[in-house]
Design goal:
By secondary structure, this protein is an all-alpha fold. The chain has 15 helices and no strands. The N and C termini lie far apart (about 70 Å).
């Protein structure tokens, strides 16, 4: 099997794991699903000791699932365990550990995520000039694949940093949101930008960041339905005026089906209704 075929298989597997890991990293997987995932991999979950044993698995996927489950089970007591995994060999595990620590009020993953962002995207995702001496199409694709994977890992770190209040991943997210080769990159960029968009507008202006503009641009230009769907769902976390500005762009998307534009319009009306209700409540209280 050629190197390029091997790389594509690996990247495909990573994407499937990503689809499962997204809700784990955001704390949306219920304990039953986590327990079932461990069981399918041959691990028991009936006791804390057995889950800790699963964190020693050679599979980084199993380690991530075990860390999430142990955090749910023992909460604050999981902090020493999670801290050890900030130095795991796999970036997915380090990212998961840093996020889980934050859910427990511990920000000790900050420096590790800063280092990962720097290591995987030292140029903030700036376009690269290909080596003219490399002419083999397979070798070129292999290099592009490896670079895209590094950028995806960098976005993982940027996402956790944004949750920690560190916005240094903004430039990378901005570039990947509009020019990311992989749908998974653009999806991760959405999470980074949404988190940063929650920051006070005066601070963002001072730092020359405009995540709302980038999200609006995505709503207008995104062609992938899965990415578009994630965008219109995620912006509901934002202040109503920001969400409305993005959703109004989404409703007019020239690249999405009528069905998806209708979904965007439904969410838009929902947000507008929430805003109006809040205004009426505020007026009545005064």
């Amino acid at each position: 099997m050629s190197k390029i075929k091997s790389l594509l298989i690996v990247l495909g597997l990573l994407f499937m794991i990503f689809m499962f890991m997204c809700p784990i990293i955001r704390g949306k997987v219920n304990p039953y699903d986590l327990e079932r995932a461990l069981e399918e991999e041959g691990y028991r979950y009936d006791t804390t000791e057995n889950i800790i044993e699963a964190t020693k698995s050679k599979s980084y996927f199993v380690r991530c699932v075990a860390l999430e489950l142990i955090t749910q089970r023992i909460e604050q007591k999981a902090i020493p365990i999670l801290k050890k995994f900030l130095n795991d060999e796999r970036p997915e595990v380090r990212c998961d550990a840093a996020h889980l620590l934050l859910t427990l009020g511990d920000k000790s993953g900050l420096e590790r995520m800063r280092q990962d962002l720097k290591d995987f995207a030292p140029d903030d995702g700036a376009p690269v000039i290909h080596d003219p001496n490399i002419v083999d199409p397979n070798e070129i694709k292999e290099q592009e694949g490896k670079r895209n994977l590094r950028l995806y890992y960098a976005l993982n770190a940027a996402k956790v940093l944004a949750e920690l209040g560190d916005r240094r991943g903004y430039k990378l997210a901005e570039r990947m949101a509009l020019n990311g080769t992989w749908a998974a990159q653009r999806q991760e960029a959405i999470y980074v930008l949404v988190e940063i968009a929650k920051t006070d507008s005066k601070i963002l202006s001072k730092e020359k960041m405009n995540p709302t503009f980038v999200l609006c641009s995505m709503a207008d230009s995104e062609k992938e339905q899965a990415v578009f769907s994630m965008l219109i769902s995620s912006v509901q976390q934002l202040p109503d005026d920001i969400a409305i500005s993005v959703l109004e762009k989404a409703v007019q998307s020239p690249h999405q089906s009528e069905k998806m534009r209708n979904v965007a319009n439904f969410i838009l009306n929902k947000v507008k209704g929430k805003k109006k209700a809040a205004e009426i409540k505020s007026k009545d209280s005064n």
